[in-house]
Design brief:
The structure is a homodimer. Chain A contains 6 helices and 2 strands. Chain A is mainly alpha-helical. In chain A, strands 1-2 form a two-stranded antiparallel ribbon. In chain A, helix 1 crosses helix 2 and helix 2 crosses helix 4. The longest helix of chain A has 30 residues. Chain A is globular and about 60 Å long. The N terminus and C terminus of chain A are likely disordered. Chain A binds a DNA duplex (30 and 30 nucleotides) through helix 4.
DNA sequence: GGCGAAAATCTCGGCTGTCTAGATACTTTT
DNA sequence: AAAAGTATCTAGACAGCCGAGATTTTCGCC
């Protein structure tokens, strides 16, 4: 694989991501395209988040954190700084700074847990909720329009697919993370 | 919406993302779940990239850049620093630093375009290619196993779905970016 | 009921990546 | 061949992140 020879015809439309794969059959093409589209979707989603956050005076991490806080609280168990750090992949120091920022501008607040007073519970404030909704509502409207083009049984297929892909990716993530203890053993070149 | 009242039953399994939506019919649930799963997929993908990059002595941006360089070169037209900056959402200064880093450790190299000698073309080096493959191969294997659980016609549906969602998201991205000129006009509170 | 280990969060110093503005190199236009 | 335009690079400042140690609270045990 990875033949650079027969690529001179400049097929940009191939989405530039499926080319690490075979493309012999229609099925191969489908698989390659879906993979590529998933990747692009992730990148573009990041960009949307980044742009939106920037326009509201915060960075991408801040927005993600705000969303995580809302998610947790809406499900009924508010998140703690520690769990937030895990969720975002941040160190404890960074999380404190992050919460300080968001608290300072009034997006969320700290509450001490009454039962275990070591813990701090994060709750969103009025302003934070508005911001999150401003982020999700337009996205949701667009999503609804796309979904309207699919029958129920088709959505079932998509759901099954996304669930399976998600589970697979998380497995992979854990595998990659597990290998983090032995990174630079051999110093070959 | 956003009733916090009837959420006390702690349904973590709801994936914590679909709750900005109605969930009355089976279809509503499907839509909410798919949306949630897409979001989670994006976050997890980021984490995988971050972890993998860290293990190889670079950061998430570096890995994304490396992939972009390979993608472009494999399609037949190598990317320039300028276009790479656009793709990653970085300023020109940051791109220079980025390329310096990657060139220094031997992941890619700079080539002057022979026809337009203002331009610099980025090409991956041996080491960069290895790294990218090390990133994609295990992912691809997993993906293949998931795909094996779907018939051709089902993959067609998934493909149609992802394409539509991708297009929609990119539209949204452009809309958000277009609004970037007038961010902090009113200084209300 | 008080002691030590464990847990959760916070503080502080240092580093790295990014941005902005301006400088440099090459190309195209007139 | 000078001026205007485009692409890239340089330099200084700043913000977010990490890691180690300090602080506060809880839990198990005697």
């Amino acid at each position: 694989m990875l033949r650079t020879r027969d690529v001179g015809r400049k097929r940009r439309d191939v989405a530039a991501h499926g080319m690490y794969r075979r493309r012999d059959t229609r099925r191969d093409v489908l698989i390659a395209e879906i993979t590529a589209e998933l990747r692009r979707y992730g990148v573009d989603a990041q960009h949307v988040g980044h742009a939106f956050a920037g326009q509201h005076g915060l960075n991408a991490t801040d927005l993600q954190a705000l969303i995580a806080v809302m998610d947790a609280e809406l499900v009924g168990d508010p998140i703690t700084p520690g769990r937030l750090g895990e969720h975002l992949g941040l160190s404890s120091g960074s999380v404190t700074a992050l919460i300080d920022r968001l608290e300072r501008v009034g997006h969320l607040r700290r509450d001490r847990d009454t039962t275990d007073r070591r813990k701090v519970l994060l709750r969103y404030a009025e302003r934070g909720a508005e911001l999150a909704m401003g982020f999700f509502r337009p996205l949701g409207e667009r999503t609804d329009r796309v979904m309207a083009g699919f029958r129920d049984d088709e959505l079932e297929v998509v759901y099954r697919f996304m669930t399976a892909m998600g589970a697979s990716l998380r497995e992979h993530r854990d595998e990659v993370r597990a290998a983090r203890t032995e990174p630079h053993r051999r110093r070959s070149e």
